[in-house]
Amino acid sequence: MLVSLFFALPSVAHPLIVILFLFLSSLVFALGGLINGIYGKSFDGISIVPTFVLTPLVYLGGVFYSIQSLPPFWQTVSQFNPIFYIINGFRYGFLGTSDVSPLTCVLVLLGLMAVLLAVNVHLLNKGLGLKQ
Fold first, then answer.
1. Per residue in 59-82, pLDDT tens?
2. 28 with 106: CB under 8 angstroms?
3. By three-state DSSP, how is residue 96 classified?
4. What DSSP line would sit under 48-89, residue for residue?
5. Whole-angstrom distance, CA of residue 36 vs CA of residue 49
6. pLDDT per residue as tens digits for the range 15-39
7. d(CA 87, CA 127)
């Protein structure tokens, strides 16, 4: 961040939106990481999800482009990607523009967070992956 300040000043169109998405995306990734940790039996097992699940989702999530530049089939596929909504929430917060409504992004993240929380509570109550 300090090096980038020599080249350009950062602009944040909606700082509260950035903070909201920082909080929501942190919770989603923490809840997903807990599930990954419960099921992963070794370091290699834990690294499967970031390598084979998160990396493709990030590339299809529109990090480096707007999904409007994709063919219609891949635009539809991208709209089922939760990373797409995280990215668009941050894009709206920093730039003031987004492919989808910020409210839609918040609702998708809240829904995903509720599902992940329910799965985590179920796994912890079941005791799966816990040492005795």
1. 889 888 888 898 999 899 999 999
2. no
3. coil
4. HHIIIIIHHHHHHTTSSS-GGGS-HHHHHHHTT-HHHHHHHH
5. 7
6. 999 999 999 999 999 999 999 998 8
7. 34
